[in-house]
């Protein structure tokens, strides 16, 4: 009977308690809760994320009998940064986000996201606040923090900041992870992401949450470049019990740099035969006005609740996954 929810009443109550707990966490810290639109005229240019789109006929500049393309947010980041540039101060949001990707154990194309921004924080300070929230909700112990370079050297004995595609392909072959499509791949970042997900991710965060920080600069289009090592960006992720929970940045505030990175993304998309994406002009205009120094992070609420309730599948913590929507 596929009209019924996959979410039990017991888990629904627990979910509601956790979301209330999160709101109280931020209200106690005087962080303002905000709402931003799910639909936008611009979207992300990320090569590895696709936005869902729709059509709308009634914008003022719409041509007669011709619809404008709108995009569902993959995260509320651009709109929230427009609020920051308008002087809102510290903000958080719990909202729906959408991505054109397959449905699976940890993925539903429509999901619930917690995103927040802290003025004056760097990425290490924000990691500490994320750890505080995880401890509150999951009752877990103090997390460990390791650099992207450290985990590659430790688990696969290769330096991700200097490795060539030949070396990465050889590593994948030696670990039995090479397939026909990978052999033809010359995208170093894609190979690094594959190695990370297949060979490293299953080994980290087993007992306590594990923060990985300082990703290669080519994997962090919205983060500041590290002043200590310009090969890496001030981005972090958090993994716990096999689940990627968090993605955070010491935010890039330079409008010119941001525009260039979006344009570079679109060039890569074109080379890969992917459609180029419209750059969010309102977001760039906000950066030109001035984004205050800040760090921001997105946390998957559904995955957090999976951990809190010891659930094996995302469908256990949402009422109607895509196959029942």
Question: Would you give an account of this structure?
Answer:
This protein has 325 residues and is of the alpha+beta class. It has a single domain (9-143, 208-324), classed as BirA Bifunctional Protein, domain 2. It has ten helices and eleven strands. The chain has helices spanning 9-28, 77-85, 123-138, 148-156, 165-174, 180-183, 188-200, 255-271, 281-290, 301-309, and strands spanning 32-33, 39-40, 53-56, 68-72, 91-98, 110-119, 144-147, 210-213, 235-240, 243-250, 294-300. The strands form two sheets. The chain has an eight-stranded mixed beta sheet, sandwiched between helices. α2 packs parallel to α9, α5 runs parallel beside α7 (188-200) and α8 runs antiparallel to α9. The chain is globular. The mean pLDDT is 95.
The gist of it:
The protein has ten helices and eleven strands.
CATH topology: BirA Bifunctional Protein, domain 2
| Alpha-carbon Rg, integer | 20 Å
Oligomeric assembly: single chain
The pLDDT mean sits at 95
**CATH superfamily descriptor:** Bira Bifunctional Protein, Domain 2
Largest sheet: 8 strands, mixed
**What's the architecture, going by CATH?**
2-Layer Sandwich
Approximate strand percentage: 15-25%
Per DSSP E runs of 2 or more residues, the count of β-strands stands at 11
Whole-number tally of structural domains: 1
- Distance between the terminal alpha carbons, to the nearest Å? 13 Å
Counting DSSP H or I runs of 4 or more residues, the number of helices is 10
The helix content, as a percent range, equals: 25-40%
Q: Encode the helix/strand succession as letters.
A: HEEEEHEEHEHHHHEEEHHEH
The shape, in one word, is globular
Structural class: alpha+beta
- Largest beta sheet: strand ordering: 1-5-6-11-10-9-8-7
């Amino acid at each position: 009977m596929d009209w019924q929810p996959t979410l039990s009443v017991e888990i629904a109550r627990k979910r509601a308690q956790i979301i209330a707990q999160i709101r109280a966490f931020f209200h106690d810290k005087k962080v303002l809760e905000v709402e931003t639109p799910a639909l936008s005229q611009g979207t992300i240019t990320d090569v590895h994320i696709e936005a869902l789109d729709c059509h709308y006929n009634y914008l003022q500049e719409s041509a007669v009998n011709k619809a404008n393309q709108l995009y569902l947010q993959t995260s509320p980041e651009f709109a929230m940064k427009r609020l920051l540039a308008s002087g809102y101060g510290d903000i958080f949001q719990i909202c729906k986000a959408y991505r054109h990707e397959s449905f699976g154990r940890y993925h539903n194309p429509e999901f619930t996201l917690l995103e927040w921004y802290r003025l004056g924080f760097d990425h290490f300070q924000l990691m500490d606040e994320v750890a505080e929230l995880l401890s509150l909700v999951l009752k877990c112990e103090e997390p460990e923090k390791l650099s992207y370079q450290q985990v590659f050297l430790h688990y696969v004995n290769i330096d991700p900041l200097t490795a060539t595609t030949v070396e990465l392909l050889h590593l994948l072959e030696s670990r039995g992870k090479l397939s026909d499509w990978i052999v033809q791949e010359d995208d170093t970042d894609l190979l690094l992401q594959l190695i990370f997900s297949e060979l490293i991710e299953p080994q980290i965060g087993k007992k306590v949450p594990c923060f990985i920080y300082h990703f290669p600069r080519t994997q962090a289009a919205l983060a500041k470049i590290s002043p200590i090592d310009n090969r890496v960006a001030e981005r972090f992720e958090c993994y716990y019990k096999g689940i990627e929970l968090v993605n955070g940045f010491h935010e890039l505030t330079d409008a010119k740099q941001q525009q260039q990175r979006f344009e570079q993304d679109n060039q890569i998309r074109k080379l890969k035969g992917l459609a180029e994406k419209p750059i969010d002009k309102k977001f760039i205009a906000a950066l030109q006005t001035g984004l205050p120094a800040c760090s921001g992070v997105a946390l998957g609420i559904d995955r957090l609740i999976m951990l809190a309730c010891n659930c094996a599948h995302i469908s256990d913590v949402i009422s109607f996954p895509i196959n029942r929507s």
